[in-house]
Amino acid sequence: MSVTLRSGESPEKLLRRFRKSVQRSRILATVRRKRWYTKPSDVRRIKRRKAIRRERRRERKRQNRQQRRRY
Fold first, then answer.
1. Which pTM was predicted?
2. Rounded to an integer, what distance in angstroms lies between the CA atom of residue 41 and that of residue 11?
3. Residue 43, class by beta-carbon neighbours within 10 Å (0-12 exposed, 13-18 middle, 19+ buried)?
4. Which of 6, 34, 58, 60 has its CA 20 to 30 A from that of 15?
5. According to the model, what pLDDT value does residue 71 have?
6. Spatial separation of the C-alpha atoms in residues 55 and 43, rounded to whole Å
């Protein structure tokens, strides 16, 4: 990953652009995820828990929308 300094650009702005590009490319997320070996069963369990949380969050939002429509 490389970022070149544009004319008239401050080093702080360059660093901010670099951080954003790293974040967009999801490099750090991949590194964190692959830092340790995770058993396939653990991966499935984590995935299932995330799906359950996501569904509960959606349901909560759906209920909030319905309550707001009533009033």
1. 0.57
2. 45
3. exposed
4. 34
5. 66
6. 18
